[in-house]
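Possible race condition, two jobs.
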Amino acid sequence: MRQLPPLSTLRAFEATARLGSVTRAGAELGRTHGAVSRQIRSLQEAAGCALFDKAGTGLRLNARGEALLRVVAEALDGLEGGWARLLEEARGPAVHVACSATFAMRWLVPRLGEFHQRHPGVLLRLSMTTAREVRFEGAALVIAWDRGSYPPADQARAILLGPVAVGPVCAPGYPVQVEAGRLRMAVRIAHEHTGRAWDGWAAESGRAAAWEEELRFPHTHLCIGAALAGLGVAVAERRLVAEDVAAGRLVAPCGFTTLPERWGAVPFSDSVETGAGREFVTWLRGALG
């Protein structure tokens, strides 16, 4: 027989530790402050030791609590992911994909009609990731070209999909000077959490960038939006701005430069090797390649 405390006490403990507040944990779990406090007290009594220390009017995890939180959070994540996969399988063939909001809005979603025409029985679920914090949320597949923040093992098993080309883009008429070894601009638009696009473009194109001021945004689609608004020069992957360039809303004064990186899909489930997952990866490779 398993020697475990009630799951409700572990959920109350994890939520309180993660949110830093019994009140916020209660709101998330749909329980009163008193009910959550009793669950935590029950868990501590069963453990025979305190898991939190008083910190002003709140609670702070102690060393034993931090050790338990790592175990409980991992277990709950596994349960949540397994339950989500079960629900998806019960609904029919499905694949859960994580990608950046920019890739989803500017490339993937506009092309999903084509995918569903070829595979009408396959359901697709999307989750968002960011350059600062990769959040898989139980996804079977994570799509990205800048995988520098991923663990080496995840980078190594990425399924390569297609080439990456980046270039500076700006609104028509925005003043830039293109020289043999330099691109001059008044304002450079940069990503707050990764400089790989600008750095990669400079390294591979042989041009340096010179600017007087810099604007920073936490998401690529905000950088592109700022360039569309005439606020400066952003650097973007060719596919993500292709429609804006074709329509004349953006110009690429230096064209686009191919990087060593490639668009890739990092698998986090065996489901990508068969059925719906394999069909989606095959379609994705053709569309990006």
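Job #2 (started ~2 s after job #1):
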Amino acid sequence: MNDEFKGKSGKVKVMYVRDEEGGQKPNPRTGKGGRPAARQEENRRSGPRSTRNNEESGRPRTARGDDAGRSRGPRDDSARGRRSDRDDRGFSDSPWRTVSRPPVAAEADAGDEAASSKPVIDPELIRRQRQEETRVYGENACQALFQSRPESIVRAWFVQSVTPRFRETLRWLAANRKAYHVVDDAELAKASGTEHHGGVCFIIKKRMGMPVAEWLQQAQSKDCVLALEDVSNPHNLGGIMRSCAHFGVKGLLVNDASLLESGAAVRTAEGGAEHVQAISGESFAAGLEAFRKAGYTIVTTSSHAGTPLAQAALPAKMVLVLGQEREGLSDSAFQQGDISLSIGGTGNVESLNVSVATGILLAEWWRQNA
């Protein structure tokens, strides 16, 4: 039979375990014989200690009065030893055994220790992972990405209206335990960082730029590579990738491969980003030189000088070099060209948008070499 006792503080619980054999078992601490069960019950109910217990203690009982509050002198070791032989109620050979439970504070410390044993996420690791990821949004862009490289998807968001068209994507995400969320338009705008999300957004692992040497090993006999010097506007990059996919140009030599996977660039490409590959060299000039040594013709562009496009014969293997609209190609890049081309027009504007000029030039290469 088990009884439970709580102290005044409520923090320490004491459990008394009584011998079921009538209290005849010797006390494990003193080695003395146990009391009969009837006498134990009488002592438990009566409360005051017996005269024999007072004699065993080696000192008379003091009355609970004025003397109770006085400070007591130090006890000798023998008295302390005799006192330790008794239980909390003064019975030296009681059949009740006390078991103290740990206080609440100790339990809290144990909980803190268990919490501290959980793995700690390294902020530096999270930062590196974020650098390796990018957001892609837009229905056509996300459909093309899923068809091309679904394993790169980390997380996805959809609005309810587009889910019927992404039924296969949703099944694949669920089967591969990829997190996805069906949210409202405002929540998707927060996740994608733009209001022009097209109803869907993916977080994906970025692709790395392919080294020039690796590209040259698998290049075909007819190969047009586009080289972009300091072109960083995502909408221009998206339009260029869309034109490349349309005219069969698969390689883009760029300074920073991650620019081709920005959300706005991929959205503007309307799926064309999945049909081109970023190429990187030790530097932009070093990349051009490597292509020249491999037999490619370096073709530069200019709005003021060069062979008119309608009169030029474009080689089957060439690198078409374009620069930013405002300043065009740098002098060093322009001087590396084997052929310089210009696009004729009325002259009412100084030059064409770089993505528009790219489309015109690639269309002519496709016409001559397709």
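The chain is about 35% helix and 20% strand.
Logs attached separately.
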